[in-house]
Amino acid sequence: MVEKGIGARVLRKEDQRFITGRGRYTDDINQHGQAHAVFLRSPHAHARIRGIDTSAAEAMPGVLAVLTGEDVKADGLGNLVCGWLVKSKDGSPMHMGPHPLLAQEKARYVGDRVAVIVAETLEQAHDAAEAVVVDYEELGPVVALERAHDAGSLVHDEIASNLAYDWELGDKAAVDAAFGRAAHVTRIDLVNNRLVPNAIEPRAAIGHYDPGMDHYTLHVTSQNPHVHRLVMSAFVGVAPEHKLRVVAPDVGGGFGSKIFIYGEECVVLWASKKVRGRPVKWTADRSEAFLSDAHGRDHISHAELALDQDGSFLAMRVNTKANLGAYMSTFSSCIPTYLYGTLLAGQYKTPAIYCDVQAYYTNTAPVDAYRGAGRPEASFLIETLVDQAAGELGMDPAELRRKNFVPKTAFPYQTPVALTYDTGDYEATLDEALRLVDWKGFAARKAESQRRGRLRGIGLSCYIEACGLAPSQVVGSLGAGVGLWESAKVRFSHTGKVQALTGTHSHGQGHETTFAQLVSEKLGIPYEDVEVIHGDTEKTPVGMGTYGSRSLAVGGEALAKACDKLVEKGKKIAAHLLEASEADIEFKDGNFTVAGTDRSKSMGEVVFTAYVPHNYPAGLEPGMEESAFFDPPNFTYPAGTYVCELEIDPATGTTEILRFVAVDDFGNVINPMIVEGQVHGGLAQGIGQALLEGAVYDESGQLLTGSYMDYTMPRADDVPSFEVVTAAGTASHANSLGVKGCGEAGAIGAPAAVINAITNAIGRRVEMPATPEKVWRALQNTQTPQAAE
Amino acid sequence: MYSFEYHRPGSVAEAAQLLTGNEDAKLLAGGMTYIPTLKQRLAQPSAVIDLGGIAELKGIKEEAGGLTIGAMTTHGEVASSAAVRQAIPALAALASNIGDAQVRNRGTIGGSISNNDPAADYPAALVALGATVRTSKRELAAEDFFTGMFETALEEDEILTAVHVPKPEKAAYSKFANPASRYAIVGVFVARTSAGVRVAVTGAGPAVFRATEMEQALAGNFSAAALDNVTVAADALNSDIHASAEYRAHLVKVMAKRAVEAAG
Amino acid sequence: MKVSMSVNGKQVSGEAEPRTLLVEFLRYELGLTGTHVGCDTSQCGACVVHVNGSSVKSCTMLAVQAEGAQVTTIEGMAQGDELHPLQAAFREHHGLQCGFCTPGMIMSAADLLKTNPSPSEHEVREWLEGNICRCTGYHNIVKAILAAADTMRGAARAAE
Where is the Aldehyde oxidase/xanthine dehydrogenase a/b hammerhead domain (chain A) (predicted)? Predict the structure, then answer.
C-alpha cells in the first residue's frame, strides 16, 4: 500500500510556493524588452463607430503602436467564435453575430474593445489611450432581457432580431397531456441573477512573437491552454497551431471565466508581431474585469409542475429566457441549453418534461459558463418549484422530495431530458443531511428564535449535476465543435521518478496533489516521486482543459489508463527478468511478482531495465513512458442534499446563516481534504448568489456594479463554517476510478437551500440576491408571516 | 495615475506654504480615498502634499472636558486609544468599524472628514457630539464644517489640523453597512450631552444631517420607545441599487433606536 | 526619485516616480511578486504587506511614503526554511486553493495575531473584511488562522 494514495488526506504539493510568495502567475512574469498594452474600451453600450483618430496617440511619448478594428481587418484576422452549434425548434442554426478582436463598425457593450495602445510603459499606454479620438454615434441600447425581443434596436445588424436561437427539449405533447390530468399545478416565475465570476487574479496575457524562429508564445490566464491554441490558430488565425505555444502558468482561480478565448489575449500576440517581436503584456485591472470578463447566469424563467393527488410529479414545463450579452462567447450557447435543459429532471422520476429556451443578445458583457454553468440555474428552478409545491400541498418538503426521488433500484435511469443517470442514492444523502441538521428539532429552534424576535427558516436543496464533460459523440451530436476527451502521459526516468503530464489545468483544484496520489497508487511508487505537469502546450499532450468538474473523471482516468499501460509493459519486462510467463506476473504495491512465489522485481528495477535494456525482452521498445486518451462513455452525476438554516432580523431584513449542511455523493474520493475545500468554495459562491451578488446594468447599459464597492463579494463574515460530508458515495460507472467530480456542486446546490430557508422563515419567496431590503419589503407585504408557514 | 510632484512637509506652516500659490496641489492624508481616485485617473493634481510627516497633526490629547484628536490620527489609533475608549467609547467603537483593518491603519480622521463622503461614519459622530473642527486658520463647529455632499467649509489653502470632541453623558453609533463597500447605508449617532440630545445621520442623505424630530423626542425621554411615533421622511434621502429612500428612512429609525439602546 | 527602505530586513533602494505605488515598487522594482493586485478599489487585500509593523494595502500607498520604513512582505515571513506558523497552518488546514489571495491573507492574519493572540472565530471573520477569497469559502482560512494562533500561543508560553 502506498501511504499517500487514493483516499488519503494528503497536504498539497503546490502550497509551498503559494504560502511563501513564490507562485508564478502571468503578471509575475516580465520578459526582456516587454512593452505594455492598454485597451481603449467603449464607454457606450451601443454605438456606431464613425471613425477613430489615432494620430495624436501615436505621437505620444513611448507609444509603439495604436491598433484598431480596421487593422485587425486589414491583417485578415478572423473572429472569436462560439464552439457549440445550437439549433432552434425549426431546425435552423443559431444566429452568431460576428465577434471581432477589436470592434468594427459598432461597439456593442460598455467595455467592448475599440483599440489597443502598445507603449514602452503602462502609464504611457494609459496616457496615449486618452488621446485616441473615437467618433461615436450612440444607438439605442438593448439592455433588459425581458424586453430584448422588441427593444427596437438590433445588437447585430446582420441578424433579423435579437433572438439568437429558440431551443426546445422534451416531449411537449406528453407534458401537455399530463398537465391536463393533474390534480395540482404549481407555478413559479423566477430570475436567476447575473453574476460576475471574480477570480481574484484578473485576466492577463503576454504575447511574444519571435521573428527569428517565426514562433509565437502566449502566457495567459487560461483554464485550457490547448483550446486557446486551437481557437487562436484555427479561427482567429493569429498564428499557425504548430508555431504557437500557449502557457498557462499559475492561474489565480477561474470558475469558468478563464475558459474562454477573449480578444485581449489574441490581440497581444498579434500586437507583438506588429511591434517587431517585442513581448506585449496586458493585465486587466478589476474594473476592466467587471466590464469584460464573461458574466454568468442571467435567466428569467416560468416553470410549472403538475402533480397528482398524492403529490407524485406528473410533468414539468419550463420556459426560460437567457441573456447571451453582446456576443456569443466560446461556450455560451450550450450553457442555457444542453447544460441546463438536460438537468431539469433533478433527482426526480418526473415522467415528462418540456423546456424551451429563447436566448437573446443584449448590449451587455458576454455571458458564458460560471461555476456550474446551466446546472445551478436548473437546480435552483427545480428545487424552489418543488419547495413551493410542498408548501401549497401542505407536505413536508423533505417527504415530497423523497416520494418523487429516482429510487436507488432504478439505476441506470433514463430521464425524459436525454441524460442517463448511472448511479445514485438520493435518499441516503437526504437522510444524512436531515439527521445532521436535526430537521425534526427545527420547530423548537424556531420557537427559541421567535422569543428573541428573530425569524428562523430552514431550507432544503437536493441537487444533481452532470459532470465529467463529456462523451465526445454525445456532445458532438448536440452541436459541440470539439471532442471532450482528455489526455495524459506518464513518464518514468532512469531513477524511477515519474512525470505525469495532463491536458487538464489546475488553478486552485490541487491537481498536482490529487493526480500524484492517483499515479502513486496506480504505480505503487512514493507520492513524493511523482511530479504533475500541466499548463504548457509544448510540454503536455493535447488536452481539453479544466471545467465542468471534468479533470479527475476524465483527465484522471486518462492518467490511470497511462499507468495501466506502464504496468502492462512492466509485466513484460519483469517476466523476462524473472524468467516467467507474462501471464504469471502479478503487480501489487509497486512489485511485479511471479504468482504464488516470492520472486519479484520492484518497479524501480523494471524501470531501470527499460532504460538500460541490456537484458531485455526481444522486440519490446525500451523506455517507460505511456500516453493515454480517455473519452468517457457517459457524464458523471454527482448529487446531494444541502440544508440551510438561517435567521432573519425582521427590523432590517438582514439574513444570517446559522448552519449550512452539505452531504454530497461524489462517488469515490481521492483526497477528501481537497474535495471538502472545493465544496466550501462552491457553497460560498452559491450563498453569494443567493444573498449578495448581482450584476446590475442601468437603462443605458452602464454597469452599476463595476467594482467591489458595489458588487458584493462574499466575505469571511458573510458565511458560516460549513458542515460538509462527502463520504459513502455511489461509485460512478463512467470511469474505472468511480469518481464523479466535485468542483461545482456547492455553487449548484446552495442557492435553492438558502432561498427556500428564507421562504420558510418569512412565508414568501424573495428573488436573488435576497438583499435585506428585498426581505424587508417581503415582510412588509406579508400580513401574517407565521400563518404562511 | 497621472504624474505629479510629491512633497512631504514637516510642519503645518510648511504645508500651508506649499499649498498657497499651487492651486492644483492636493493634500494627502491617509490616502484611502484619494489614492484610489488617483489610480483611476479621476484626479490630476500638479502636486501631492503628504501630511504624513507632520508630527503636530498626530495624537490624541485630553483637553477641556473632551478629547482633541489630531487630523492625521488613524482610525486604528482612535479605536485602540485608552483615552477615547474611556471618555467616548462610542467614538472608539465607531472607528473600530470603519473600513477594514488595513484601512484603519492608514486612514485618518482628518482625511475622512475633509472628504466628507456622504456614507462616512465620522461626520455623524462629530455632528452629534457637537465637536469643533480646528484648521490652520480657525475653529468651527462640526455642523458648520460639513456643508454638502463631498463638501466642507475648508478653503483652498486651509488645512484641517484637529477636532475637539466634548465628552458626552451617553452616546452610541449604530450602522447598517453597505454589504459591498461596508460604508454606511445608514449610520445614526446618538449623543446626550449637557447641551441636550443630538441625533446625526450619515449614509442616508446627500450629507450628514441632524434628525431634529428624534432629538426632540429623546430630549424628554431618552429611550428607544420615545422614537416609536417619530416618522422619517424618505423624500430627501438617497436611493441607489443598495437601498431605496424608503428603506433608508426605515433604517434611520431602526438604527436610531438601536443606538439609543446601546447608549443605555 | 530614489526611494530607500528596509524590505524583509534588507536595506534596499530603487527608482520610483511619485506616482509609483508601493506594490508596484515591490513587484516590478524589487521583483518581489508574492504581493499581488486583485482590485483597484482597495478592497481585495491581495496586496497586504506590513509597514512598520502594521498591515497596510500596498496598492493604496505610494512607494515614496514608505521611504525609510520597515516593510515585510510574504517573502519575508519564513525564517530560512522554517515557515511562519501561519504559513504552516495555511498548508496544514488547506487554507488556500489558487493561492492568489494567500499572501495578503497571511499578512493580514499576522497583524491580527499580533494585536489579538486569541481571537474567536467571529473576530477572525470580522478581521478578514479586507481580504477577499473566491476559492475557499473562508472555512479553512479561518481554521488555519485559529490553529496558527494556538501554535503561536504555545510557542510564546514555551519561550517564557
Answer: 20-140
Whether the CB of A356 is below 8 Å from some CB of chain C: the reply is no
Concatenated DSSP letters of A553-592? IIIIHHHHHHHHHHHHHHHHHHHHHHT--GGGEEEETTEE
Query: A144 in helix, strand or coil?
Result: coil
| Cross-strand pairs, B174 | B188
B180/A696 touch (CB, cutoff 8 Å), yes or no: no
Write out the three cell numbers for A122. Answer: 503602462
C-alpha cell at A404: 418523487
Task: Choose among A392, A230, A382, A273: nearest CA to A320.
Answer: A382
| Upstream peptide bond of A751 is cis (omega within 30 degrees of 0) | no
Alpha-carbon span A642 to A655, nearest angstrom: 18
Alpha carbon distance C39, A201 (integer Å):
9
Q: Cα separation of A311 and A402, whole Å?
A: 11
**Cα–Cα nearest to A240, from A249, A230, A250:** A230
> What distance in Å separates residue C17's CA from the closest CA in chain A?
11
CATH number of A31-139+201-252+258-292: 3.90.1170.50
State the span(s) of chain A assigned CATH 3.30.365.10: 299-469+634-781, 485-630
Q: Please provide the DSSP assignment of C15-63 as one string.
A: E--TT-BHHHIIIIIS--TTS----SSS-S-TTEEEETTEEEEGGGSBG
End-to-end CA distance of chain A: 54
Beta bridge partners of C124: none
The full 3-state SS of A497-555, as one line of letters, equals: CEEEEECCCCCCCCHHHHHHHHHHHHHCCCHHHEEEECCECCCCCCCCCCCCCCHHHHH
Contacts of A61 in chain B (CB under 8 A): none
The model's pLDDT over A45-71, given as tens digits with 9 standing for 90+, comes to 999 999 999 999 999 999 999 999 999
Contact check, Cβ <8 Å, C100/A12: no
Whole-structure pTM value: 0.97
Q: Please tell me which of the candidates A692, A696, A772 has its beta carbon nearest to residue B241.
A: A696
Give Cα B171 to chain centroid, integer Å: 15
C15-39 pLDDT per residue, tens? 999 999 999 999 999 999 999 999 9
Which pLDDT tens digit goes with each residue over A124-166?
999 999 999 999 999 999 999 999 999 899 999 999 999 999 9
Query: Any idea what DSSP says for residue A692?
Result: I
Is residue C59 over pLDDT 60? yes
Touching B (3+ Cβ pairs <8 A), the chains are A, C
The H or E element that residue A760 is part of is helix A745-762
Chains interfacing with A (3 or more CB pairs < 8 Å):
B, C
Instruction: Count the neighbouring beta carbons within 10 Å of the beta carbon of residue A787.
Output: 8
Site of grid cell 507609444 = A63
ipTM: 0.98
Phi/psi for A772 (5° steps) reads -55, -40
User: A43: which chain B residues are within 8 Å (Cβ-Cβ)?
Assistant: none
Residues of C in contact with A709 (CB under 8 A): 41, 43
Question: Domains in chain C and their CATH numbers?
Answer: 2-76 (3.10.20.30), 85-159 (1.10.150.120)
Query: Could you tell me the three cell numbers for A455?
Result: 425569524
CATH fold of A299-469+634-781 reads Aldehyde Oxidoreductase; domain 4 (3.30.365)
Paired residues of A502 in beta bridges:
A488
Q: What is the CATH number of domain A485-630?
A: 3.30.365.10
| Cβ contact C36–A201 (<8 Å) | yes
Could you tell me what percent of chain A has a pLDDT over 90?
Answer: 97
Determine the pLDDT at residue A786: 40
- Mean pLDDT confidence for A351-359: 98
> Distance between CA B263 and CA C5 in Å, rounded?
45
